[in-house]
Amino acid sequence: MSSTVIHVLAYHDAPKAIDWLVEAFGFERRLVIDAGPGKVAHAELTYGPGMLMIDSTTDEAAPLDADQNRPGGVYVIVDDVDAHAARASAAGARIVDEPADQPHGGRAYSCADIEGYVWGFGSYDPWKV
Q1: What top-level branch of life does the organism fall under (predicted)?
Q2: How far is CA 14 from CA 69, 100, 120, 129, in A?
Q3: Is the pLDDT of residue 5 over 50?
């Protein structure tokens, strides 16, 4: 099995952050799904063969949200989302979002690790759409 790791960042003003990342660092917009004024549901920025996913955070008091999660994290592509969620839960991960089909494709779930960092695992592979 091959695996790909993609970093995810959550910003209070994701549209502004995307513009800045494009301008300041040379990222390129691959996909941006608007979620209303000042919000992004999902974005993919590329830099060469690398990718960064951006989402809007709704927590005004980052770095921790009400559930003690840290915004942002890592997205890892896995073959079997449900089996992976069961394994993570059995190892003590706190499931934040149960496995579910996603509006931009694939199936995904998220969990908090032992320090509260949120990790996303899913079958959606942005390189194959």
Answers
A1: Bacteria
A2: 18, 24, 18, 23
A3: yes
Radius of gyration of the chain (CA): 15
Task: Read off the tokens for 43.
Answer: 């974005």
Q: Distance between CA 116 and CA 62 in Å, rounded?
A: 13
Q: What is the DSSP letter of 69?
A: P
To the question of pTM greater than 0.85 for the whole model, the response is no
Q: Which domains does the chain have, with CATH numbers?
A: 5-128 (3.10.180.10)
Cα dist from 58 to 14, 62, 65, 71, 72, whole Å: 11, 9, 9, 10, 12
Q: How many CA atoms are closer than 13 Å to the CA of 86, on its beta-carbon side?
A: 4
